[in-house]
C-alpha cells in the first residue's frame, strides 16, 4: 500500500503537482546555494526530494534515511540508484558533524518530539540544516478546499504540529541560527535555512 507521502506525489491534481514541483525547485535552489560537500536527508520517505537534489547536484554525495520500511522499499523500486537506508531521527547513527548539509523536509510536523529531532539534526550537521514544514493555517485550508480530511477541518491526520513563520522560526532558533526563511516562493510550505 502506498504511503500518504507517495499518494501526494501520485495525485492527478494539476494544481497540487505544480505546487510540489515549485516547492522542490525552491528547496533544491536553496540547498545548491550552500555549495554542499555532502547531503543527508532525514525523513526522506520514498526519496522524491532526494532524487531532485541528486539530479541538481549529481557530483555531491547523498544519503536518505527514513524509519518507514514501506517507504524505503518503495523508494528502492522508484529510485534504484539512490542510497536509502533505515534511520531514526531521534537516534541517528551518523557521527557528530558528519554531514555538511542536513535536510528534513515535511518531517517535523509528524513528530511528537520535534525539539529532540532538531537536536539530532544539529548534532550531525557540519554547516547547515534545511527544514521545511507546512505553513499553517494555509496548508490546512488548502486541504479543506480540496475536500481532504474534512472530519479534521483539513488538518492531515499525521500532522501533530502546526506552525506559522513566527512560531517555526522560534522553534528552530532554539537550536540553530536561522539565516533565511522562504514562504511566498514555497507556498504552502515554509523553508528555513539554518546555520549550525
Describe the protein's architecture and organization.
Helices cover 37% and strands 21% of the residues. It is of the alpha/beta class and 196 residues long. It has one domain: Vaccinia Virus protein VP39 (Rossmann fold, 3-Layer(aba) Sandwich), CATH 3.40.50. A seven-stranded mixed beta sheet has the order 3-2-1-4-5-7-6, sandwiched between helices. It is globular and about 45 Å long. The N and C termini lie far apart (38 Å).
In short:
This protein has helices spanning 4-9, 14-33, 48-56, 69-78, 114-124, 138-145, 165-173, and strands at 39-42, 62-66, 84-86, 99-105, 125-134, 177-182, 189-195. It is an alpha/beta fold.
Rg, Cα atoms, Å? 16 Å
Q: CATH class, please?
A: Alpha Beta
Helix-strand sequence = HHEHEHEEHEHHEE
* Percent of residues in β-strands: 15-25%
According to CATH, the homologous superfamily is Vaccinia Virus protein VP39
Count of the domains: 1
Number of E-type strands: 7
Give me the secondary-structure category: alpha/beta
Stretches where pLDDT falls below 50 for ≥5 residues? none
Widest sheet, order of strands: 3-2-1-4-5-7-6
What's the CATH architecture name? 3-Layer(aba) Sandwich
Topology (SSEs and partners):
Blueprint: H1 4-9, H2 14-33, E1 39-42, H3 48-56, E2 62-66, H4 69-78, E3 84-86, E4 99-105, H5 114-124, E5 125-134, H6 138-145, H7 165-173, E6 177-182, E7 189-195
Parallel strand pairs: 1-2, 1-4, 2-3, 4-5
Antiparallel strand pairs: 5-7, 6-7
Helix pairs in contact: 2-3
Keywords:
alpha/beta; 196 residues
Amino acid at each position: 500500500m502506498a504511503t500518504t507521502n507517495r499518494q501526494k506525489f501520485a495525485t492527478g491534481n494539476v494544481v497540487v503537482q505544480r505546487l510540489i514541483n515549485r516547492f522542490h525547485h525552491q528547496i533544491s535552489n536553496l540547498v545548491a546555494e550552500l555549495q554542499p560537500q555532502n547531503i543527508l536527508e532525514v525523513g526522506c520517505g520514498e526519496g522524491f526530494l532526494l532524487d531532485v537534489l541528486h539530479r541538481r547536484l549529481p557530483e555531491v554525495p547523498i544519503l536518505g534515511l527514513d524509519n518507514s520500511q514501506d517507504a524505503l522499499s518503495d523508494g528502492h523500486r522508484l529510485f534504484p540508484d539512490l542510497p536509502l537506508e533505515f534511520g531514526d531521527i531521534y537516534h541517528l547513527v551518523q557521527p557528530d558533524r558528519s554531514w555538511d548539509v542536513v535536510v528534513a523536509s515535511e518531517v517535523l510536523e509528524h513528530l511528537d518530539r520535534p525539539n529532540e529531532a532538531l537536536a539530532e539534526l544539529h548534532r550531525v550537521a557540519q554547516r547547515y540544516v534545511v527544514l521545511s514544514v507546512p505553513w499553517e493555517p494555509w496548508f490546512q485550508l488548502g486541504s479543506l478546499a480540496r475536500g481532504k480530511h474534512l472530519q479534521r477541518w483539513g488538518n492531515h491526520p499525521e500532522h501533530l504540529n502546526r506552525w506559522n513563520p513566527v512560531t517555526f522560526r522560534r522553534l528552530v532558533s532554539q537550536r540553530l541560527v536561522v539565516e533565511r526563511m522562504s514562504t511566498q516562493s514555497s507556498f504552502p510550505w515554509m523553508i528555513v535555512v539554518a546555520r549550525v
